[in-house]
Amino acid sequence: MSTIIDTFIAPFCHDPIEYLYQDDHLILINKPSGLLSLSGKNPQNLDSVHHRMVKIFPECTLVHRLDFGTSGLMVVARNKAINAALCHQFSQRTVGKMYSALLCGHLDDDEGVIDAPIAKDPALFPLMSISAINGKPARSHYRVIERFYRELDDGGQLPLTRVQLTPETGRTHQLRIHCQLLGHPILGCDLYGGRLLLGTEQTPRLMLHACELDFIHPVTGEPLNTHNASPF
After folding, report:
1. What Rg, from alpha-carbon coordinates, does the chain have?
2. Distance from C-alpha of 75 to C-alpha of 221, rounded to nearest angstrom
3. How big is the CA angle at 7 (ends 101 and 54), to the nearest 5 degrees?
């Protein structure tokens, strides 16, 4: 059995957490890119969404996570009972999630579905892999918003596609590895080919943003439909 060795040290994130909504039960935030959701085992990776928020809300717990490089909407529970109720909604897949992303190259189809099971492999850590034998079911929808070119410093042009991504499941790195499988990795993705295309090497961040989060308030029963515009 392979032993996972995590050598990643997160550079300090100077961007603040943006608080979008809060009540006695939950908090909605906009997580900046470059901030861990949860503190790592390495003491140098202490800074995180949770580490910052417990200083203000001592009982708060994370309901779900976003990757280090992903920005956008997260819901945080203010106590264990709310956490359990929200986790139930996530596990039942009744939570609506939508992401905005920039993909390398121009997609041929205007929309489609990526259905490919994802597996963990300690030997490849931190990468995930597509595996029909060992993987857990994973399904993502994509829809093209626009195809365009970005002007490069050398006068060249970088083809990009802006898409909306809607995951049906919530596997680790799902959108990133599914876009790579599609042949159009997310711009700035260092793990799955988003810095390989000429002109992408210096991309400042992972171009993936959680822009919509829809769920039922566990106490009031009211639907919360939250939108946060993409910063790129």
Report:
1. 18
2. 16
3. 70
67 classed as catalytic? yes
DSSP per position, 88-133: HHHHTT-SEEEEEEEEES--SSSEEEEE--EEE-GGGTT-EEE-TT
Long-range interactions of 187-192: CB distance < 8 A, separation 24+: 187/101, 187/102, 187/103, 187/104, 187/160, 188/69, 188/102, 189/69, 190/69, 191/126, 191/127, 192/127
Q: Which two tokens stand for residue 111?
A: 């929309």
pLDDT tens for residues 52-78?
999 999 999 999 999 999 999 999 999
Q: Which tens digit of pLDDT belongs to each residue from 127-168?
A: 999 999 999 999 999 999 999 999 998 889 999 999 999 999
Query: Is residue 30 classed as helix, strand or coil in its secondary structure?
Result: strand
In the set 6, 23, 67, 154, the catalytic residue is 67
What superfamily does domain 18-227 belong to in CATH? Answer: Pseudouridine synthase (3.30.2350.10)
